[in-house]
Amino acid sequence: MQHAVGAPLPPPPSGAAGWAQGAQHPGQHPGWVAPNQPVPPAPPAHQPPPPPAHQPPQPPSMETTGHIQLPPGGPVPLPAPPAATTPADTGNTTLAVLLIGPAGAGKTTVARYWAQSRRMPTSHISLDDVREWVCSGFADPQGGWNDHSEAQYRLARRTCGFAARNFLANGISCIVDDAVFPDRPVVGLGGWKRHVGPGLLPVVLLPGLEVVLERNAARSGNRRLSDEEVARIHGRMAGWYGSGLPIIDNSGYDVATTAQVLDDVLARSIASPPAW
Question: How many H helices and E strands in the chain?
Fold first, then answer.
């Protein structure tokens, strides 16, 4: 039988536990008391529970987030020589690497592959990826180099530097890729040394112009540059020759081979750091 909302429910079957026989007759309102029957006492007033005794603050449970204290990221010193498994191997060394190259050199692909191939925990930070975190108001240099694009590049580099130092302070190697020009040392290498530290190991990835043009043509979106711009950038990158930095010409290498050559170069750089 259906009952209207708020109507009293019928009593349970006769003899049901906890139900006094004849406790309620048809037509009686719940709470009705028979004549000459004592009125039941009113229930005691609700008493709020006593306030809990003061207890000292407890440390966060391991089940909560935020309980792991991370070391602060500071300037990265030069790494110790690696415990290498082969004569040219970075082994178990925690490294900070800056991979330099023009658009189309393959530096982002190589950096990611190298980071994924290491035995040590290693992170990869792409400057272009960080730069494109700006959505509304993104200053695309293809629309013209100006104060806004310059400021966003500087901001992205500083953000990458902060991230690299935090990874390295917690035992995770880091490789950052950026198109650093040799004719702008204060903004380029000087900026990276300030952001990360003197232990940063720069390596230049510089294939031939024909290879760079071909790779750039396969790009899409705002990362694809005009042939004239690619040639101009490549020509400026040629200034790294004679700088003392290690240079890899990966024109005839695939990604895996280039990553292995990069590891060999870094092993030698640890043993004899380049002056920069």
Answer: 7, 5
